Amino acid sequence: MSILIENISKHFGQFQALSPLSLNINEGEMIGLLGPSGSGKTTLLRIIAGLEGADTGRIQFGDRDVTNLHVRDRRVGFVFQNYALFRHMTVADNVAFGLEVLPRKERPSATEIKKRVMHLLDMVQLAHLANRFPSQLSGGQKQRIALARALATQPEVLLLDEPFGALDAKVRKELRRWLRGLHDELGFTSVFVTHDQEEALELSDRVVVMSNGHIEQIDQPGALYASPNSRFVFDFLGNVNVFEGRFEEGKWHNGIANIERPNTAEPKDGQLYIRSHEFFVSPSPTDTASLPLRIIAINPIGAEVRLELTPIDWNSNEVWEIDLPHKAFDKNCFEKGQTVYVTPKAGYFFAADAEKPILLNWEH
Amino acid sequence: MATNLSVDHPRPRHKRVLPGLGLSLGTSLLFISLIMLLPMAGLVMQTADMGWEQYWSVISDERVVASYKVTLWAAFIASIFNGFLGLLLAWVLVRYEFPGRRILDALVDLPFALPTAVAGITLATLYAQNGWYGSILESLGIKVAYTPVGIVLAMAFTSIPFVVRTVQPVLEELSPEEEEAGMTLGASDWAVFRRVIFPALWPALMTGVALSFTRSLGEFGAVIFIAGNMPYVSEITSLMIFVSLQEFDFPAASAIASVVLMASLVLLFAINLWQARYLRRLHGR
């Protein structure tokens, strides 16, 4: 079922949790709401569910206006961050709950309920735990039971609040893949909230990046990564180094450091955003750039080696991070404390007065 | 590492906040013995002087048996009433913000703080035929003071904090998400209360009601002023003990007391066992 969100806003006391925002979600789509805490993503999710009322605006499921509909009549599946399983009920009773509270006319018979519950438990591969209590389950198992419970009434919209937040990395990855499979198989429309960019990019059809109660960008994961459209999205997607440059004589300067301006960029002051893997590292400056840095840490991470560096005689608010392939790293034998020069290959330029970035490529 | 482990090192002692088991358990046991077991042993010794026959004739005396009935019924009704009112009070105190909430919260403990005799006299005055409430109820044909209804009232008043104070913390810890989960699954408000909230409160509520009941069984000060104390109608068991004491019949007093004591102990043990079983399920084995 498609979801239409129109001019929804919300404040709690003095705090504006959501500025008026609109969003269209297509039928069968999986949407990730991504943002830091306090960005309003959970509030938006709860408003879609009907757990929170919006101050203004309209929500529509398909052709049905649900703006003033109570949460119990919206028929959405909702998975809570802490699972919110009923502690005093067995796993099977938890899953059966949504069926058992149906009005008598719509309620399936007891045997039918039992059959449906077993089917759902099979689907989440936990049929053997039917008679356990939630306190006897692990986090990942609880999460799957919470999902089975939410899906029992066959909702067409599934809403998930930080679904994998409390799980360890391995279980999280497994569950993510499993949820995606389930989504594709059953064809419901899903919206999930996360602060983990990797999760949002991996799982969603489209990612909605939020900050301070508004939407910063809506895009497919690939497009979002390739062209973030604001400083916020850049910062939030992470792994980016910022060079604050003053433009003079064809170059951006900061202290003793400088970077040459490619022809595509405006000759203005501004910031260069360069991702951590878009660099060469060499013992001496190159024609393109002279960025002296001192290596303060060397961390091998998977297929790459991550260097942490601090600027020498120029300024940056944060420690720089540069990822090198093992081959490039081994060739140079870098050591902690060593001074190196880095040269960008590609990056984005925000002129001081501009909202949108320009993509830059340096030729070597 | 492996070689290190095989060497017999003295293990570092784990530091605890309280001194070791010996000292803390010893102190607790000593205190319990002095304050509870010793008087109870005295009670048993007093009754041991009587033979079984005499014991039985004292505790099965017609007037005493009538007092058991009055006490049990009154305590039962009072504790059930407190179950409802206490749950409501706890609910209001936890779930709503309103001016004077703190004051109401403090007032709940008043029956504990107030000398029970003062409570009894106050209730008797209010509900007497010419009292503030009594005169109104009188015109409706309801008599409270000097009837068994008065006993129920006094018992309910003195024991309500038990219910409120046992239910309140559980209600505070109940996560709102469970209720919300119930609602997203389509449950009506009543279904959420009955199937989600109530089962979580049930053990605490039962404990509160049981405490309220046992307390009511033993209540003396508050009740005698309002009960009227008519033999076979509104005499409570504590009064029977008191009467025996007045007659310097200490063995009879302790015999009756032992019955009350036994009833309370059995009930408390039963509640504890049942609750332990229930909670084990909730917290996993």
Number of helices of chain B: 14
User: Structural class of chain A, please?
Assistant: alpha+beta
- Number of β-strand runs of chain B: 0
CATH topology of the largest domain in chain A: Rossmann fold
Number of helices of chain A: 10
Biggest protein-protein contact in the assembly: A-B, 30 and 22 residues
What is the C-alpha radius of gyration of chain A, as a whole number of Å? 25 Å
CATH superfamily of chain B: MetI-like
Q: How many angstroms does the end-to-end distance of chain A come to?
A: 51 Å
Explain this structure.
Chain A is an alpha+beta fold. Chain A has two domains: 3-228, P-loop containing nucleotide triphosphate hydrolases (Rossmann fold, 3-Layer(aba) Sandwich); 239-361, OB fold (Dihydrolipoamide Acetyltransferase, E2P), CATH 2.40.50. Chain A is built from ten helices and 21 strands. In chain A, strands 11, 12, 13, 14, 15, 16, 17, 18, 19, 20 and 21 form an eleven-stranded antiparallel beta sheet that branches. By secondary structure, chain B is mainly alpha-helical. Chain B has a single domain (61-279), classed as MetI-like (MetI-like fold). Helices cover 78% and strands 0% of the residues of chain B. Chain B contains 14 helices and no strands. Chain B has helices spanning 2-6, 21-48, 52-59, 62-95, 101-107, 110-113, 116-127, 132-139, 148-173, 176-184, 189-218, 221-227, 237-246, 250-283. In chain B, helix 7 (116-127) runs parallel beside helix 12, helix 10 (176-184) runs antiparallel to helix 11 and helix 13 (237-246) runs antiparallel to helix 14 (250-283). Chain B is globular and about 60 Å long. Chain A binds chain B through residues 49, 51, 70-73, 75-78, 80-82, 84-89, 97-98, 101-102, 133, 135-136, 149-150, 152-153, and chain B through 175, 177-178, 180-188, 191, 195-196, 199-200, 281-285. Chain A: It comes from Marinomonas transparens.
Walk me through the topology:
The complex is a heterodimer of chains A (364) and B (285).
Chain A: E1 3-12, E2 15-25, E3 30-34, H1 41-49, E4 56-61, E5 64-65, H2 71-74, E6 76-79, H3 91-100, H4 110-123, H5 139-151, E7 157-161, H6 169-186, E8 189-194, H7 197-203, E9 206-211, E10 214-219, H8 221-226, H9 231-237, E11 240-248, E12 251-254, E13 257-260, E14 270-275, E15 279-282, E16 289-301, E17 304-311, E18 320-325, H10 326-332, E19 339-344, E20 346-351, E21 358-361
Parallel strand pairs in A: 3-8, 3-9, 6-7, 7-8
Antiparallel strand pairs in A: 1-2, 1-4, 4-5, 9-10, 11-12, 11-14, 12-13, 13-16, 14-20, 15-19, 16-17, 16-19, 17-18, 20-21
Helix pairs in contact in A: 3-4, 3-5, 4-5
Chain B: H1 2-6, H2 21-48, H3 52-59, H4 62-95, H5 101-107, H6 110-113, H7 116-127, H8 132-139, H9 148-173, H10 176-184, H11 189-218, H12 221-227, H13 237-246, H14 250-283
